[in-house]
Fold this protein.
Amino acid sequence: MGTSLKGRTILMSGGSRGIGLAILTAAARQGANAVFLAKTDTPDPRLPGTVHTAVATIEEAGGSAVAVVGDVRDEADVERAVATALDRFGGIDICVNNASALDVRSTEELPLKRFDLMQSVNTRGAFLLTRTCLPYLKRSDHAHILTLSPPLNLAPRWLGAHPAYTLSKYGMTLLTLGWAAEFADHGIAANCLWPQTMIATAAVTNVLGSESASRSRNPEIMADAALALLSRPPHEWTGKTLIDADVLAQAGITDLARYGGGEHPELDLFVDQPRVE
């Protein structure tokens, strides 16, 4: 799995639940520090957990954690999160673009307000967080940018399914591939990670329904894949759009039954069924 993340500092957008929290908890088991910018300060009946319960979970796993209550769309909130990481831990080694808005309605059905939300949280938020972290990533000897966004699958079935959401997620991917090229000389790795299958999160249940959730793997598969990636020296992997199962296979983990989802878990958006030769 590469080198330990002990003493490394991760700054993440979101992180109070789901995949983000699973990644921070797994990193905490290696002794990593976590600063995350998230909005849920008080309980929401639609969503499990708050920033406070997330801090407790991360620290119980062995790491140090600080939650910054704020919005990745707000420049002052992002700057405050970065300042918190510097004040508390002295630097930033890993920037994780995790926060994302999901709405898979069609062009005719999607309100403009929701279109704006997805572009602002997903693409603009990733740009803002990464840009604000960059001066400190350049000082790290283990600098990674990790964006939870999909491979650029241009098949018509995906381009036509939900163009507004697709635009926002592909925007995150294009930015990350651009950063890999732009900052290659600074030793900063920039990669995208995406699940092969649906992941059992509140977003999947709330937006896609309980049936999809029952055929979804649990968030720990993305956490294990993220750690396998983030523990590598930055020069080894950069400029890639990676699928969790493929990353784990390269790390020698091929039995994915432990992650749930049943015998035939539902493939995630933008992921095609492998061809049978």
The beta strands are 9-13, 33-38, 64-69, 94-97, 144-147, 189-194, 241-243. The longest helix spans residues 112-137.
